[in-house]
Structure prediction request, 116 residues.
Amino acid sequence: MYEADIYYHIGLAYCNVQKFEKSIWPFSRCITRVPSDIRYIHERAKAYQMIEHHEAAVEDFSVVIKRNPKNAHAHFRRAFSLKALKVSFVKCFIITRMIFFSDLLRQQMILSKRKI
Prediction:
């Protein structure tokens, strides 16, 4: 855990001096070490967004939203990346619903396996 925090602060330091591309690697190391901590995923998504890697940003923001659906910042930033990718509002809505329902379906499958 401590090692992940060290990489996290290295990534933040790169972001603070506008070196977003260099921050990706430390944030990725954090995620590898502690995949359950969405702070690391959220920061990497923001870094991807700043270097205009919007596909990767959308993917990371979507993971954050899956794990914390009330994270307004992740919703807001994902919308900006989707807009940059020229994804229409309708497609954005469909993507959001697909993520939500795929999680719901996965939970139902897990519950049905427990009953067997």
Q: What stands out?
A: The CA atoms of residues 12 and 23 lie 7 Å apart.
